[in-house]
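Known limitations

Structure tokens in this collection are predictions and should be treated as such. Users comparing against experimental data should check residue numbering before alignment. To illustrate the layout, the record for non-specific serine/threonine protein kinase is reproduced below. The input appears on top and the generated tokens appear beneath it.
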Amino acid sequence: MGCWQSSLSAETHQEKDQKIHNQQPIQRNSPFSGGEAAVPAIGVPPFSKFSFLDLKAATKNFSSEFIVSESGEKAPNLVYKGQLQDSRWIAVKKFSKVAWPDPKQFAEEAKGVGKLRFRRLANLIGYCCDGDERLLVAEYMPNDTLAMHLFHWENQTIEWAMRLRVAFYIAEALDYCRNEGLSLYHDLNAYRVLFDQDGDPRLSCFGLMRNSRDGKSYSTNLAYTPPEYLRNGRVTPESVIFSFGTILLDLLSGKHIPPNHALDMIRTKNILLLIDSHLEGKFSMDEATIVVDIASKCLQYEPKDRPTAKDLVATLLPLQTGVDVPSYVMLGISKHVDAPPTPQRPLSPLGEACSRKDLTAIHQILVMTHYRDDEGTNELSFQEWTQQMRDMLEARKRGDFAFRDKDFKTAIDCYSQFIDVGTMVSPTVFARRSLCNLLCDQPDAALRDAMQAQCVYPDWPTAFYMQSVALAKLDMHQDAVDMLNEGAGLEEKRQKSGRRS
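Generated tokens:
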């Protein structure tokens, strides 16, 4: 087992930056691209096939308590939330057994949708085709649907700037899907718009697949169905734009208004009657007029008269304000943070202290352990016992006194003198300096020291445990658990071989 990373400083910062990029709100990275190349989703797992047993376990045997479909247990295709063994949450859509009789057709369609990876989508990450079972697996969005926030809110309605952000993000999602050759979206409505852990709106990937083998595409009230679908029963890219227009009406009014009724209000210039009274006048009339105009164009009777998804993105882009305000703040919700995943192996006292990030307990254990694990890591000849060597050991001794007395800044200086000479390497010194850096709020330096300890002593559990604490401090929780498990596995090997831990 070699070093976890070879280029310690550069790769540590790079990986940290990538993790932070995954967790912070999307808008901090110039979200309003205005038609530039789509920014891909980061950190989305590759598309894969799941076993039915795994999904059954993840959803607690498809418990009714795990149903997240808005229409509840009577829906033909239920959606459940589930939690995999690695603690990752997923959304699982379960089709009826007769919906997709041909497993090959189902798998091919799922794989087509599974190729998409975009930050405005709740991306499809897998499927299940065991026997008669037909299930889709997607990223789980923990902050409800647009319908819930617009029509069933308890604390506050959605503010105007956030409504414009929803419209823009969903237009971006539709434009991305069109560019990727999947321009048909079935039954687009406010229940298909989901909010992720940062409160950012995303379009459910489930609507990119047909609902069943007969190609049925709309299950909502006929008053909201595109007129051409009523004529020939087929969904077209222009039908999707019509449905987007109904979402704009929802955002404008805070109610689910039939398009014909809304168009009558628009034609008679009663725009103010269309605007949600719960906004209490806190909106721009100029912006509202533009959105009303977009909605009316989307709802044109003739499909050829409707704008494209690209047109929608271009028109909605200039309306975006509050770019630096996270979506969860605009929604008035707390940012959703999953509990860190738990280790798979039993942990030693040091491992337990590291999993709790209990720096005081870690300090006590390292003081008690002293240098017993350094035996055999250095072989020095008589010639190397020079004055420089004595000075180096004296520096380490001063560092040990400072470490014991909790003078961690002095300990860092003394241990650095010892390390910089380079005549003697000590994994314990790296572990101790790693802890000192953690206690001085320097997790980057702590991680580098713990990784150096692993380089000196590749099978040393303490090196992995210290890495786990530093990674947790850097909000890299899955990596932290991986390091805990590595350390615990090495301790198991030691116990089996009769070595002291």
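For this record: The first helix runs from residue 8 to 23. Strands lie at 48-49, 78-83, 89-94, 121-122, 124-128, 135-139, 193-195, 201-204. Please report discrepancies through the issue tracker.
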